[in-house]
Specification:
The protein has five helices and no strands. It is an all-alpha fold.
């Protein structure tokens, strides 16, 4: 009986994995975690943690929002994700200026962030019925 109840619940939840925006954000999170491993130890609770939190928030908010009822609520979480993507943009820019990452690493991260932003904005617009 417990299994049937879980299956019924799972059918009602929108599977966030199907959204291209979430997939792109997930890829960004993994890249940010990989790159920040080499940040100085004294940045553990500073730029390292903040970069990771912001990147995590991009994908996590899409996942959480997709489980909410109704498009307006989902849009609210997509809006938060878009804000976190802007935060990631600044974090990686600062890391580049501080020479914690190379220009090549920055270009890779920025390309991933740009793709995630574009797809999240498209999803946001489609949920609002603008496209």
């Amino acid at each position: 009986m417990q299994s049937r109840r879980w299956d019924a619940y799972r059918c009602r939840v929108m599977p966030y994995e199907r959204f291209h925006a979430w997939q792109a954000c997930d890829e960004l999170v993994l890249a940010v975690y990989r790159v920040t491993r080499s940040f100085p130890v004294n940045e553990r609770y500073g730029l390292t943690a903040q970069s990771r939190r912001a990147a995590f928030s991009t994908a996590a908010n899409i996942a959480e929002g997709s489980a909410k009822r109704g498009k307006p609520e989902f849009c609210r979480f997509l809006n938060i994700s878009i804000g976190s993507l802007a935060e990631v943009a600044y974090a990686i820019r600062l890391a580049r200026k501080l020479e914690y990452i190379t220009d090549d690493q920055w270009r890779e991260l920025d390309a991933l962030r740009n793709r995630a932003s574009r797809l999240t904005w498209k999803l946001y617009d489609s949920m609002r019925g603008e496209r």
